[in-house]
């Protein structure tokens, strides 16, 4: 199996790894695959033994011309995702404050207004490509609002964030790499200016700027938040609608029982983890699930596989919004648990409540749905809907 095939449908590989004794080495990931729920939870609970450095190792190394475009821009510092210990605590603290329940609650009127406006913009058309019309714009607008960005700057900033991802995970011709790097450099300059202007403001960018002070750290962590702050929610907005409509009984049940919206959100996260997993680096010789690992070896901790573990979840390959709740690991666990999980859940809740009320006749326009070739934000590339 090549890497793209694994990224598009990793579940058969996960199933074989869960059934095999010990850990399974994946050539495509160049890492030991941690596939069972108990093992995933154990690794996430032991950050001293499994370092987050290199958590999101690139698939592609950009060429020298692309690096030259980035050289003059601020950034290039470590981020919360890939640090341990004191550094991780320092980077995470302003995120915890900025994404606190109180801050999320204060943002909900903006979320509701934006969600309703997006839906109204295409509701009369009777059809829409969900990912472009709603699943991408809503989380982008919300994270831009929390950062305090000018709304006019948000679409370009989000596009540049995607270009940063492409630079590291999508093979491109050299000229395309240079063009992408140029957009990323412009984004970093924008975020630097915005952080300086936000020092006295009560927003997420101001929280980061006051807590970190080093401009390179501020820009890197703001850029990381901009991307991570909407990709997870975008992915879940795609997969929850896809799976609710793929089995019509699930959609009709949700229409009849809107009280199941929170359960539908958790089931979507369990069934199709938006971030399929992260790498961890072994810090000392140890044994995990009977497999001896040396210091410096890499494991891939699969949240997506943990959610399909039959020892924890009954009928794990069935999407069922009436499932008895069991704690999934799709938002991580322990010190690296996703600080934006509440914000993501609230955007999904508002969206599903809006859809069952305003578009009860919603259905898939076709059966063919292609998943994006990435493990970072597992979502349909396109999702055509009619009503």
Question: In words, what does this structure look like?
Answer:
This is Cytochrome. Pfam families: p450. One of its GO terms (molecular function) is cholest-4-en-3-one 26-monooxygenase activity. The chain has 387 residues and is an alpha+beta fold. It has one domain: Cytochrome p450, CATH 1.10.630. Helix content is 54%, strand content 9%. It has 16 helices and 10 strands. The protein has a 5-stranded mixed sheet with strand order 1-2-8-5-3, with helices on both faces. A 3-stranded antiparallel sheet has the order 4-10-9. β1 and β2 form a beta hairpin. α6 runs antiparallel to α8 and α10 crosses α12. It is globular, with a radius of gyration of 21 Å. The mean pLDDT is 95.
Features:
iron ion binding, steroid hydroxylase activity, monooxygenase, Cytochrome p450, cholest-4-en-3-one 26-monooxygenase activity, 16 helices, 387 residues, five-stranded mixed β-sheet, alpha+beta, 10 strands
Could you give a quick summary of the protein structure above?
The chain is an alpha+beta fold and 387 residues long.
Mean pLDDT: 95
Query: What do we call the CATH homologous superfamily?
Result: Cytochrome P450
Succession of helices and strands: HHEEHEHHHEHHHHHHHHEEEEHHEE
Q: Number of helical runs? A: 16
Pfam families: p450
Organism: [Actinomadura] parvosata subsp. kistnae
GO molecular function, one term: steroid hydroxylase activity
Keywords: Heme, Iron, Metal-binding, Monooxygenase, Oxidoreductase
